[in-house]
Amino acid sequence: MGVEIERKFLVRGDAWKTLATGVLLRQGYLSSHPERVVRVRIEGGAARLTIKGKSSGASRGEWEYPIPLADAQVFLDTLCERPIIEKYRYRIPCGGLTWEVDEFLGENAGLIVAEIELASEDQAFERPDWVDEEVTHDARYFNSSLLRHPYARWPTGGAGAYLDE
Amino acid sequence: MGVEIERKFLVRGDAWKTLATGVLLRQGYLSSHPERVVRVRIEGGAARLTIKGKSSGASRGEWEYPIPLADAQVFLDTLCERPIIEKYRYRIPCGGLTWEVDEFLGENAGLIVAEIELASEDQAFERPDWVDEEVTHDARYFNSSLLRHPYARWPTGGAGAYLDE
């Protein structure tokens, strides 16, 4: 078990795209309940199951277990909540840390977010030009929310008049 | 992954109790959704995570992964749906197969069921005297149902006038 401290930002322009190569990532949820998320993810031929507890500020209990690729494929294709999420993930080293930029596909196409994992909630970090507004606490951008309310269906296609149900 | 074929029965009398020693089993659900059950179980110092797909007759896709005991304790104590299930499990060899008899505690106290795992849905098996009525397809006896509708709260304390909501 670890405690995950992540901050999430929108992205401007496409300068970041020249800094890394995207890897296709498929993920889905056996549970998207915010107090007990169970996520299945395939990335670069490896699969894992991740369990996440309730968020508290930017911190969240997180536990990961590797699972056989074939199992993950069955889970994503037949068991997980619909739709599953597909995105390209770019890992961009910066100031001793790594930005993870996610370029979403399918019903979330058009959405690009950058995340950085920190050791503490107030840790300082370098913020490149292409990193825009912070959305860490904006529930619309939680992966579990993007299942129910994909980006393509947001009223303004962005941070506008959208209200959760 | 395996396909689980189990038949479930009520139990009469207590002759079965002299045939084995019960082991305390604690289990809870990260998801009790019938199409994607995620179960956490601790039994005899070992913990595992089990994923089950949708039932089809008495068959059901089932995948199991061992996990650290400490993780399972956190899941059961803080993450799983309430209440968790606690029961004594007795394993009773019989005619080359094994009956698993579950004696429930807590809100399901009074309920005792016997299960047998088979290689095919029509496999013959020996049926001891203490094995009573079959309840394989009776959803009230699914472990996931016993969370929401514990046995102690059934109208007749048994197979009577109870109707699911």
UniProtKB/TrEMBL annotation, chains A, B:
Residues 2-148 form the CYTH domain. Pfam families: CYTH. InterPro entries: CYTH-like_dom_sf (IPR033469), CYTH_domain (IPR023577), NeuTTM/CthTTM-like (IPR012042). This is CYTH domain-containing protein. It comes from Noviherbaspirillum aridicola.
